[in-house]
Amino acid sequence: MIAVSFFEVREISKRFGGLMAVNGVSFQVEPGEIFGLIGPNGSGKTTIFNLINQYYPLTSGDIVFHGKSIKGLKTYQICHLGIGRTFQVVKPLKRMTVLENVMASAFSRVNTFGEARKLAMETLAFCNLLPEQDKAAKSLPIAGRKRLEITRAMATKPELLLLDETAAGLNPGELDEAIDLIKRIRDRGVTIIIVEHIMKVIMSISDRIHAINYGQTITEGKPEDVANNKEVIEAYLGESYA
Ligand SMILES: Nc1ncnc2c1ncn2[C@@H]1O[C@H](COP(=O)(O)OP(=O)(O)OP(=O)(O)O)[C@@H](O)[C@H]1O
Ligand SMILES: [Mg+2]
Fold this sequence. Notes:
By secondary structure, the chain is an alpha/beta fold. 38% of the residues lie in helices and 24% in strands. The chain is globular and about 50 Å long. The termini are far apart.
């Protein structure tokens, strides 16, 4: 019997006019792991997420979930299959309350108001956002907005969750809370691909890390090996460690 991979991107590329933002990237993610994706600004990380959930069509390559290609599906179909995501630039429904924001996501899984409210309340409790439920989403400080972004994605009940810089802009105490939440999400059985610039976060929670630069793979491996890779240090860590 051939083992079916949980999630895989195969030689994916994305061209924007004359720019190859992503150029032949391949990786596999195992169920239950936290898979880190790193690279300098503009290296193509967010574009890879936008390709995975088909926000942008692929220029070439394939994306395989549970052994089946998801290429060409609509974004909502990808969500329904069990791939959730957060946005680097958070996108709350600003005039709505925190609870209403999460309910809107919950409707991707349930049909009635009562069910959506129940799922939203459970997810808010899990993400430690229940005390903020009646506040307007736009009134939340950055840490709350980042947490709401994760809560909304979790309310779609993902099997695979894509986190795009959900720790950016947090203070040290908030960072520890964010790390704790991400670990608890994984402990629930959700597989995670995480894009993050903050080394403390990415190095401490990733099982494996895939490093890119200019849309191409530099290396992949355990956090300590990737952190010691010469090309990675030059391309990426050099910015903050030089
Ligand atoms: N819709 C678009 N149209 C044209 N170019 C784009 C578009 N989206 C991204 N790009 C370009 O593709 C490249 C990769 O961008 P991307 O946002 O994926 O980088 P990133 O690794 O997420 O960077 P950052 O760490 O700053 O978030 C950049 O040069 C960017 O300007
Ligand atoms: Mg980005």
